Amino acid sequence: MQPHVNRRANAAAAIVREEWGTLTWLAAGRLGNSQAMTLGLVTIQPGHANPRHAHFQCEEVLHLLRGSLHHTLGDEAVDLAAGDTLTIPAGVFHNATSTGAESAEMVVAYPTAVRDMVIEPPFVPEDDPSTYE
Description:
By secondary structure, the protein is mainly β. It has one helix spanning 8-13, and strands at residues 15-18, 21-27, 38-44, 53-54, 60-66, 68-73, 76-81, 85-88, 94-98, 104-110, 118-119. Strands 1-2-3-10-5-8 form a six-stranded antiparallel beta sheet.
């Protein structure tokens, strides 16, 4: 593969808008500029959260550039401030909520050019054995 520069105009064309914020993919197999990694810029609006999800084929590294986050990972949670870096193991369901007055902006990286993403199924109380009589 030859070196490739992804210009700002190209990145703007790769923005995915969600009700909670945006994802701007900077490098990935589907963009044709990486055979081994996925790199993106994620923005979550204040008070909003991305859906709880997992990546079963790869870990995720998140570096918070600005804002603050409450991040759930499995049954645990951690609060992040600008400058913090979080590594999420493969297969762990997780999500982030922007907790500050400004949008949270982060870089996310995956050690694969084709990242998988599985949304966590909703919890159904009837499936919880502790509710059985």
